[in-house]
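Bench notes, afternoon.
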Amino acid sequence: MLDVVCGVIKNSEGQFLACLRPADKHLGGLWEFPGGKVDPGESAESALIRELDEELGVVVTVGLPLVPVVWSYGEKMIRLLPFYCQIIRGIPRAIEHEKLAWCAPQNFNDLSWAPADFPILRQVRGESVATGELT
């Protein structure tokens, strides 16, 4: 199982940062919370700080974790480790994504999200999610 981290970043208007995956990548054309793989020997928090710097050009503080999501994409299984994050330096740029968008929770359904992000969307909206949800 592959550990993957993602940052749930909220702006002052109560919107969350969504990132559009490049068309030529796995799950291309779908939206996701930004993040990436945890390297061997790396903590989830350190991986998230590194990934958000690489993908968005921002420095963040990592806050509270959300419920992890275990997800099978057929050929691979991931454990998605989401954390609330706050940007402390920089303005997000689409370095590794096609586009960025700030999205209010009531508008999450306007975007086509990667399947593993659905349980995180529900958590952000305050809906209950089972620990270690496998969908």
